[in-house]
């Protein structure tokens, strides 16, 4: 199993990067659908487009699990 990115060929790096981007996009789409359903069901108040987009951004960042993962708390 390769553990170093630079050991991979350019084609392998590109393929892995593209797959990661596809997965990230799918994750964002799934979160957006979930958010839309929660608003439709009344679980989350519909506070308009900007707030919904900010909430989506926070969910995406938390789901990414990066080093700078913010703490999301409060009510939508």
Any overview of this molecule?
The chain is an all-alpha fold and 76 residues long. It is built from 2 helices and no strands. Helix 1 crosses helix 2. The protein is elongated and about 50 Å long. About 12% of the residues have low confidence.
Chain-wise SSE layout:
Elements lengths: L9 H31 L8 H16 L12
Briefly characterize the structure.
62% of the residues lie in helices and 0% in strands. With 76 residues, it is mainly α.
Distance between the termini: 43 Å
User: Quick one: how many beta strands?
Assistant: 0
* Helix-strand sequence: HH
pLDDT averaged residue by residue: 75
Oligomer: single chain
- Rounded radius of gyration (Å): 17 Å
Low-confidence runs:
65-73
Helix content: 55-70%
**Could you give a short account of the major beta sheet?**
none
- What form results from the Cα inertia axes? elongated
Structural class: mainly alpha
Estimate what percentage of residues fall within beta strands: under 5%
Number of helices: 2
Q: What characteristics describe this protein?
A:
62% helix
């Amino acid at each position: 199993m390769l553990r170093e990115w630079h050991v991979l060929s350019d084609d392998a790096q590109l393929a892995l990067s593209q797959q990661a981007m596809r997965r990230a996009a799918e994750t964002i789409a799934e979160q957006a659908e979930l958010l839309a359903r929660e608003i439709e069901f009344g679980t989350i108040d519909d506070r308009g487009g900007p707030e919904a987009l900010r909430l989506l951004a926070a969910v995406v960042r938390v789901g990414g699990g990066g080093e700078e993962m913010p703490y999301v708390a409060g009510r939508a």
